[in-house]
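Exercise 7. Given the components listed, write out the predicted structure of the assembled complex. Treat all entries as one system.
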Amino acid sequence: MRITVNGKQEDIKLARPTIADLLTQYSLQEKTVIIEANGEIIPKDSLSSTHLKEGDRLEIVQFVGGG
Amino acid sequence: MSNRYSRQELFLKETLPFRKKRALIVGAGALGSALAETLVRAGTGGVTIIDRDYVDWTNLQRQQLYTERDARDQVPKATAAKQRLQSINSEADIKAVVADAGPEELASLIEEQQPHILLDGTDNFETRFIINDLAQKYRLPWVYGACVGSQGISCVVIPGETPCLACLLAVLPAEGMTCDTVGIIAPAVQMTAAFQGAEALKVLAGRKEEIRRELVSFDLWKNTHSSINISSLKKEDCPSCGRQPSYPYLSAERRTKTAVLCGRDTVQVRPPEGRQFHLDQLASMLEKQGTNVKTNGLLLSAVVSGKRVVLFQDGRMLVHGTKNISDAKKLYQQLLG
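Answer.
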């Protein structure tokens, strides 16, 4: 399935993936992130119940602490 | 003398918009250096910069105000910053404060200096949450910015209008991703500081309608950029910016506590409540940078900057071989952010 993540085309090879699965693939499952899917912010507790579909546009922002 | 601000004025269509403005920059590291230089060159009337650290050789790769001489002489960063900034613009009123930026220090600086904006040049979430609470309490805009590796993130917080950092993050992140554990390249600093600096100029020039309302982040190595409209995340019951704020990070129990363990030449650093650490993740990160780490799942021990440290799952850290509380606290935040 092809989706867009942070402006880049990605080919996802997981079966019926959720946003949580995608985060695991990116090793972001335990990081502090805010996710927007198709213009809507997805609440934390819905990440593992929100399934990705062809053509989805995701924005993933990861909080970091350095400076 | 020809007008040093002519190119800026051509763009802004305004003469000396920053002359009567003052910014308080918290932290004089990489972001703080870049922000201070931007504002001083732009003709900001006053810049106050607070930092507890001194210049070290490992800073020179990205902290643009400092020189080899500063590192050799271990000059406090705020002092070295002031010297350089004053030579860039002799008209600016620059105040350097060499101190730990805790709630009391920052509150008294805000009252004394009356800044128009607070700028985040810190390297840890704890201080950012203090800035976030103070910004709400004193009704001052502040600009969050952070960077690590090739990544950066920024957003503007305006009391009464935008969500605040506590709306975005219910708890202090406990990831241990800092410049000292995963490293950083200078362009990540410059990009983050550019996002922050542009918003600071808009705020100081009173160009409210042009202030960015999105949370922006980027990765210069992976060539990605994202921007999220966060206005829906503003919480009515937020403890920092909601209807009945309690400013939790200004109170004592949310602060990192330190204690010298008697007769053991050891300092214990205890984080604010509610931080849970993934010791395995931190161990693999430290191993990647060549540190010898031992972990048994319950605690992690390593030698960092010549000191043996032991970290427990609840975030408590023992720093052995020192009685110096500020050294221990610095080491703690270097490792855990």
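Discussion: Chain B has two domains: 6-250, 256-336. Residues 265 and 322 of chain B are 5 Å apart (CA to CA).
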